[in-house]
Specification:
The complex is a heterodimer of chains A (256) and B (298). Chain A is an all-alpha fold. Chain A has one domain. Chain A is 74% helix and 2% strand. Chain B folds into two domains: 6-223, P-loop containing nucleotide triphosphate hydrolases (Rossmann fold), CATH 3.40.50; 226-285 and 292-297, Alpha-Beta Plaits, CATH 3.30.70. In chain B, 36% of the residues lie in helices and 28% in strands. Chain B has helices at 44-52, 73-78, 95-105, 112-121, 137-149, 167-182, 194-200, 218-225, 238-242, 263-272, 287-297, and strands at residues 6-15, 18-28, 33-37, 59-64, 67-68, 80-83, 155-159, 186-190, 203-208, 211-217, 228-234, 246-247, 252-257, 277-283. In chain B, a hairpin with a 2-residue loop joins strand 9 and strand 10. Chain B is elongated, with a radius of gyration of 23 Å. Classes of the chains: A mainly alpha (256), B alpha/beta (298). At the A-B interface, helix 1 and helix 4 of A face helix 2 and helix 3 of B. Chain B: GO terms for molecular function: ATP binding. Chain B: Keywords: ATP-binding, Cell membrane, Membrane, Nucleotide-binding, Transport. Chain B: Residues 6-234 form the ABC transporter domain.
């Protein structure tokens, strides 16, 4: 009966990945198809009328935004839905009874959710390739923002999943916070196409920096400096990770 | 002297205005079959949850095999297996997947030999590849027991494991738990079936309003609180009342006796008072009477 110090964490990570993989139609394929519908409709309607950054075709401009939007939404959905389902059905005790630390708990839920986000994001990117001429000007930047963005939303998902007592509350979190912040973050448009007021308002939206920084990885240009985006996203990630870890360390709503 | 399997000292827990645990002190020795009884809301589940880390006590200390459940939680949890009261399960996985995952949480890999043994003991081998959703309530209950045992804990806590379980499964379950106890596992049981506690537990604690109101061996409790009884139905019930019996429905009267030696003198007093016995029953001491007595006086 060999024992390993990190086996607990690895098992929770494996279980969380297996959980979404077993329902891959719903958790991976469906969001990819949704993103494709956005791409087909918006590119058909707008490609001849709108460009990004002056000379980038609208469809090409749109794809990184859709990839990142899908990635973020699914990273959030994974941790939040897993936790609230486990809480409501009561099977969360199988994770709370074993000798797992709160850091292992956090890392397993967040990494599994990042993986789902990255799977979906990669899926959207792959199916977009036939429709658009896209190159990765700075892949390191794209990868950094994909990783940090998914980690931020996965952490938010952990917070929402722990905080919510009912599916209704979680839906509220998703529909009134995550969805508007994602939609109004420049997925479908360049910030410079907005009036000044809304450009300023958008600067208060951390999702904007995630998507703008990710887009920089494709085009080598962005609405704001990628370094500024990196700074904002890094600070957000650190704050949210600290908040989530503090909640878990206290046992907030998990260990009464 | 070895440390007790469980040590609970001055544990308190409050939920808002409700004092769930009001200073509980308790020790369970290694190898004991220990019963934790009490009415609903007495604090049994809160105490078990505090021991297993599901609830954080406001004050006091709890140890499992000498390991503090807060400061040394990893070792404390490795030594403890808990069968929860609620019939909970993860609908995404098969029985074997769940048991492998549960083993992994405890840092154990390649645990299939032991998993096979548990499955066989609990008559679940045929269901190893079945999804949890496909199992009956009784089978789900057995999987809960299996999950609590995957890491071979020396201390096993069963929180009302036979609630809503049919007689056959209950018997099978107790046979298995008895075997675990014989093999050296310490068992802590909470149940509302007092005849089960009486038959299985060597020692019993009774909780009321978050306090231990009785703690002794089962034999001592039965002797200390419960009396034997002589139930008679007389042609003239008022005679029994005059002799100190408790009158019950249907003309029955009950005399509390310390031992069966008192039966003959009691019958003699009835005869002398002019009572003719129509029906008669002898009642043995049982835990239910003890429980009622303790809860009444606590």
């Amino acid at each position: 009966m060999p024992e390993s110090r990190l086996a607990g964490f690895r098992t929770l990570l494996y279980k969380e990945v297996l959980r979404f993989w077993k329902v891959g139609f719903q958790t991976v394929l469906a969001p990819v198809i949704n993103a494709m519908l956005f791409l087909l409709i918006f590119s058909h309607v707008l490609d001849r009328h709108v460009t990004g950054y002056g000379e980038v075709a609208y469809t090409a401009f749109l794809v990184p935004g859709l990839v990142m939007m899908s990635l973020l939404q699914n990273a959030f959905a994974n941790s939040s839905s897993s936790l609230i389902q486990s809480k409501i059905t009561g099977n969360i005790i199988f994770v709370l009874l074993p000798p797992l630390s709160y850091r292992e708990f956090y890392a397993a839920y967040v990494i599994a959710s990042m993986l789902r986000g990255l799977f979906v994001g990669a899926g959207v990117l792959l199916v977009s390739i036939p429709f658009v001429d896209l190159s990765l000007a700075a892949p390191g930047w794209a990868l950094a923002f994909a990783l940090m963005g998914s980690a931020i939303l996965a952490s938010l998902g952990v917070i929402a999943g722990i905080w919510a007592d009912k599916f209704d509350q979680l839906a509220g979190f998703q529909n009134f916070l995550i969805m508007p912040l994602t939609m109004l973050s420049g997925v479908f448009y360049s910030l410079h196409s907005l009036p000044q007021l809304w450009q300023d308002v958008s600067h208060a939206n951390p999702f904007f920096f995630m998507i703008d920084g990710f887009r920089y990885g494709f085009f080598g240009q962005s609405d704001v400096s990628p370094w500024l985006s990196l700074g904002v996203v890094s600070v957000c990630l650190m704050l949210l990770a600290a908040l989530t870890l503090a909640m878990l360390a206290r046992g907030y709503k998990l260990r009464a | 002297m070895s440390l007790p399997a469980i040590r609970i000292a001055s544990v308190t827990k409050r939920y808002g205005s409700v004092q769930a645990l009001a200073g509980v002190d308790l020790e369970v020795d290694r190898g004991e079959f220990f019963g934790l009884l009490g009415p609903n809301g007495a604090g049994k589940t809160t105490l078990i949850s505090s021991l297993s880390g599901l609830v954080r006590a406001d004050s006091g200390t709890l140890e499992v095999m000498g390991h503090d459940v807060v400061s040394d939680y990893r070792n404390a949890r490795r030594k403890l297996g808990v069968v929860p009261q609620e019939l909970v399960f993860d609908p995404f996985f098969t029985v074997r997947e769940l048991l492998r995952i549960q083993s992994g949480y405890f840092g154990i890999r390649h645990n299939d030999d032991w998993i096979d043994e548990i499955l066989a003991s609990l008559d679940l081998t045929a269901k190893a590849s079945a999804n949890m959703r496909m199992l009956s309530g009784g089978m789900k209950r057995r999987v809960l027991v299996a999950q609590a045992l995957v890491h071979r804990p020396p201390v096993i806590v069963l929180d009302e494991p036979t609630a809503g379980v049919d007689v056959e499964l209950r018997q099978g379950l107790w046979q298995f738990i008895r075997k675990l106890n014989r093999d050296g596992h310490t068992i802590v049981l909470t149940t509302h079936y007092l005849e089960e506690a009486e038959a299985l537990c060597g020692r019993i604690a009774m909780l009321k309003a978050g306090r231990v109101v009785a703690l002794d061996t089962t034999d001592n409790l039965l002797q200390r609180f419960a009396t034997h009884s002589l139930r008679v139905r007389l042609d003239r019930p008022e005679i029994a009342g005059r002799l100190g019996a408790t009158l019950a429905e249907g003309g029955w009267a009950e005399f509390a006796l310390d031992t069966y030696d008192e039966v003959e003198p009691t019958l003699a007093r009835l005869r002398e008072a002019g009572g003719r016995i129509v029906e008669m029953q002898l009642g043995e001491a049982d835990l239910e009477r003890v429980f009622v007595e303790v809860m009444h006086h606590a």
